[in-house]
Amino acid sequence: MARGERAASSLPQNLVYMGLSLGVLPAQKLAQTRAGARGAVFFYSCVPAEEFGGPWPASVPLQIHGAEQDPIFMEEGDVDAARAIVAGAPDAELFLYPSTAHYFADSTQTGFDAASASLAVDRVLAFLERI
Questions:
Q1: Which of 53, 104, 119, 128 could serve as 99's disulfide partner, Cβ 3.0–4.6 Å?
Q2: Inter-residue long-range contacts of 66-69, CB under 8 Å, 24+ positions, other chains counted
Q3: What is the DSSP letter of 98?
Q4: 35-48 tens-digit pLDDT
Q5: DSSP 20-34
Protein backbone atom coordinates (compact mmCIF):
# COMPACT_ATOMS: atom_id res chain seq x y z
CA MET A 1 0.00 0.00 0.00
CA ALA A 2 2.86 2.36 0.73
CA ARG A 3 4.14 1.86 -2.80
CA GLY A 4 0.72 2.82 -4.20
CA GLU A 5 0.59 5.91 -2.02
CA ARG A 6 4.07 6.96 -3.14
CA ALA A 7 3.11 6.47 -6.78
CA ALA A 8 0.00 8.61 -6.35
CA SER A 9 1.70 11.35 -4.33
CA SER A 10 3.01 13.14 -7.43
CA LEU A 11 -0.26 12.83 -9.35
CA PRO A 12 -3.17 15.28 -9.35
CA GLN A 13 -5.91 14.63 -6.80
CA ASN A 14 -8.85 14.30 -9.20
CA LEU A 15 -8.21 10.66 -10.16
CA VAL A 16 -10.21 7.50 -10.64
CA TYR A 17 -8.51 4.74 -8.69
CA MET A 18 -8.57 1.23 -10.12
CA GLY A 19 -7.28 -1.92 -8.51
CA LEU A 20 -7.12 -5.55 -9.57
CA SER A 21 -7.06 -8.28 -6.91
CA LEU A 22 -4.36 -7.37 -4.36
CA GLY A 23 -4.02 -4.01 -6.12
CA VAL A 24 -7.48 -3.12 -4.80
CA LEU A 25 -5.96 -2.47 -1.38
CA PRO A 26 -3.94 0.64 -2.34
CA ALA A 27 -6.64 1.76 -4.78
CA GLN A 28 -9.33 1.47 -2.12
CA LYS A 29 -7.23 3.23 0.50
CA LEU A 30 -6.46 6.10 -1.86
CA ALA A 31 -10.07 6.41 -3.05
CA GLN A 32 -11.30 6.52 0.54
CA THR A 33 -8.64 8.74 2.06
CA ARG A 34 -7.00 10.93 -0.59
CA ALA A 35 -8.79 14.20 -1.24
CA GLY A 36 -10.40 14.73 -4.63
CA ALA A 37 -11.00 11.14 -5.74
CA ARG A 38 -13.37 11.16 -8.74
CA GLY A 39 -14.23 7.48 -8.54
CA ALA A 40 -12.98 3.94 -8.03
CA VAL A 41 -13.17 0.63 -9.88
CA PHE A 42 -12.26 -2.64 -8.17
CA PHE A 43 -11.84 -6.02 -9.84
CA TYR A 44 -11.69 -9.34 -8.02
CA SER A 45 -11.36 -7.95 -4.49
CA CYS A 46 -12.77 -5.59 -1.89
CA VAL A 47 -12.17 -5.02 1.82
CA PRO A 48 -14.50 -3.47 4.39
CA ALA A 49 -14.54 0.33 4.21
CA GLU A 50 -13.67 0.35 7.92
CA GLU A 51 -10.17 -0.89 7.03
CA PHE A 52 -9.45 2.64 5.87
CA GLY A 53 -11.54 4.61 8.35
CA GLY A 54 -14.89 3.95 6.59
CA PRO A 55 -17.62 4.48 5.66
CA TRP A 56 -17.19 4.77 1.91
CA PRO A 57 -17.08 8.50 0.97
CA ALA A 58 -20.46 9.57 -0.39
CA SER A 59 -18.81 11.77 -3.03
CA VAL A 60 -16.82 8.91 -4.63
CA PRO A 61 -18.67 6.77 -7.21
CA LEU A 62 -17.64 3.11 -7.16
CA GLN A 63 -17.88 -0.05 -9.23
CA ILE A 64 -16.89 -3.49 -7.94
CA HIS A 65 -16.58 -6.48 -10.30
CA GLY A 66 -16.24 -10.12 -9.25
CA ALA A 67 -17.07 -13.63 -10.37
CA GLU A 68 -20.04 -15.24 -8.65
CA GLN A 69 -18.23 -18.57 -8.39
CA ASP A 70 -14.73 -17.30 -7.56
CA PRO A 71 -13.89 -18.95 -4.24
CA ILE A 72 -11.55 -16.10 -3.29
CA PHE A 73 -14.06 -13.31 -3.95
CA MET A 74 -17.08 -15.22 -2.63
CA GLU A 75 -15.65 -17.08 0.37
CA GLU A 76 -12.93 -14.84 1.80
CA GLY A 77 -15.11 -11.87 2.67
CA ASP A 78 -14.67 -9.76 -0.46
CA VAL A 79 -18.26 -10.03 -1.67
CA ASP A 80 -19.53 -9.31 1.84
CA ALA A 81 -17.38 -6.18 2.03
CA ALA A 82 -18.55 -5.14 -1.43
CA ARG A 83 -22.21 -5.63 -0.54
CA ALA A 84 -21.82 -3.62 2.65
CA ILE A 85 -20.15 -0.72 0.84
CA VAL A 86 -22.76 -0.72 -1.92
CA ALA A 87 -25.59 -0.80 0.62
CA GLY A 88 -24.25 2.29 2.36
CA ALA A 89 -22.97 4.35 -0.55
CA PRO A 90 -25.19 6.54 -2.73
CA ASP A 91 -23.31 5.79 -5.97
CA ALA A 92 -21.83 2.31 -5.80
CA GLU A 93 -22.49 -0.81 -7.86
CA LEU A 94 -21.53 -4.45 -7.47
CA PHE A 95 -21.43 -6.59 -10.59
CA LEU A 96 -21.19 -10.36 -10.36
CA TYR A 97 -20.34 -12.39 -13.44
CA PRO A 98 -21.15 -16.04 -14.20
CA SER A 99 -17.57 -17.26 -13.94
CA THR A 100 -15.49 -19.42 -11.65
CA ALA A 101 -12.16 -17.71 -12.34
CA HIS A 102 -10.64 -15.08 -10.06
CA TYR A 103 -9.17 -13.19 -13.04
CA PHE A 104 -12.16 -13.75 -15.31
CA ALA A 105 -11.50 -10.57 -17.34
CA ASP A 106 -7.76 -11.15 -17.89
CA SER A 107 -7.15 -12.74 -21.28
CA THR A 108 -3.71 -13.96 -20.19
CA GLN A 109 -5.13 -16.09 -17.38
CA THR A 110 -6.69 -19.53 -17.30
CA GLY A 111 -10.42 -19.14 -16.88
CA PHE A 112 -10.69 -16.00 -19.00
CA ASP A 113 -14.36 -15.43 -19.77
CA ALA A 114 -14.62 -13.34 -22.94
CA ALA A 115 -18.32 -12.55 -22.57
CA SER A 116 -17.99 -11.44 -18.95
CA ALA A 117 -14.84 -9.47 -19.73
CA SER A 118 -16.57 -7.64 -22.56
CA LEU A 119 -19.53 -6.77 -20.35
CA ALA A 120 -17.21 -5.60 -17.57
CA VAL A 121 -15.28 -3.35 -19.97
CA ASP A 122 -18.54 -1.86 -21.27
CA ARG A 123 -19.67 -1.16 -17.72
CA VAL A 124 -16.38 0.44 -16.73
CA LEU A 125 -16.32 2.64 -19.84
CA ALA A 126 -19.90 3.79 -19.20
CA PHE A 127 -18.98 4.53 -15.58
CA LEU A 128 -15.94 6.58 -16.63
CA GLU A 129 -18.03 8.55 -19.12
CA ARG A 130 -20.58 9.58 -16.52
CA ILE A 131 -18.29 10.59 -13.66
A1: 104
A2: 66/94, 66/95, 66/96, 66/97, 67/96, 67/97, 67/98, 67/99, 67/100, 67/101, 67/102, 67/104, 67/113, 67/116, 68/96, 68/97, 68/98, 68/99, 69/98, 69/99, 69/100
A3: S
A4: 999 999 999 999 99
A5: EGGGHHHHHHHHHHS
